[in-house]
Amino acid sequence: MTQLSVLDLIPVRTGQSSGDAIAASLGLVQAAERLGFTRYWVAEHHNMPAVASTSPSTLIAHFAGQTARIRLGSGGVMLPNHAPLTVAEQFALLEAMHPGRIDLGLGRAPGSDPVTSYMLRGPRTTSEVDPAASFPTDVETVAALLGSDRAASAMPFGPDDQPGVVLNIRGRSYDLKATPNVTSAPALWLLGSSDFSATLAAKLGIAFVFANHFGQPGIEQALEIYRSRFEPSEALAAPQTFLTANVSVAETAEEAQRVALPQLISMARLRTGGALAPQLTVEQAAVAELSPAEQDSVLQQSRYWYIGDPESVESRLRAFAAQHGADEVMVSPIGGAYESDPIAATPARVRSLELLAERFPELAGQAVLAEPASV
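The chain above was modelled as a monomer; its predicted structure follows.
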């Protein structure tokens, strides 16, 4: 493995505002760039008190304007929530503003409750009750609007070779484009934790990411399906994938476990039917009363998350990548905050990245020493 990247849900902890949480994540993405991480993706979740990443495109624009080199992307845009043209337009503009730095990761899950999903996309006709059913067609539409097949091969668009979709409406042809005149397009990725997404990515010749940080089984089967059924496209001549992993790294294993506990408790409560309240501080987590089911969930998650000192986490991540034939792992740093930590900073998560970078010297070639780009 030669590359590490970062996934961020923009967690909101006790006492933080949304603005505080975003400011903390800005410090994290700037640290990731400084340390040589390849890409930094933000997720899409809605109506959750503990998660501020509701709009990946907005966050990407903010982060891209204050960094210089690192790739920015969505992990991912939940396509059933949006009209394909809206997604294509947003990411076409991001690519125009920051050429060669934008990734568009697309997912099929709603990332929200049914009421929020309804409000995001509005009323549907009876034939569109389940927007996830149109996901394959919507992915192809986004790809066509963006011309991502040409972008992936780094070929510039010619003046008469603009990407788009030709529609026939009442007998009249209508040429639909995401943006007037493009020279490059975002790299397109398909996200998933099931055979469905792996099969679709293979059929369309799109890069695939298995969302391992959810702890879902089936990673071996999904990757085997993707690689064995992959059909080369103009975008991609061979299968391309990376894997995700939750990490908490500190100077000692005890400290890594201590700062991981707030997120472990948050996920345990979510998985056992509880509310996803703002993340506890480290001190609050240490004295939190957990039900037997929550205790079991914390123990189970601790086993498959990457929690420990730098040497042990490095060893496990390299073995994980080698086992599944991946040359990139996207880590989600989940360390919580102490009550004494600055409200608009995330020291434990930054420290996780710093300690990982020390154990992965191959990142040094991508490190950025210059000041961030001005806004």
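The first strand starts at residue 3 and ends at 8.
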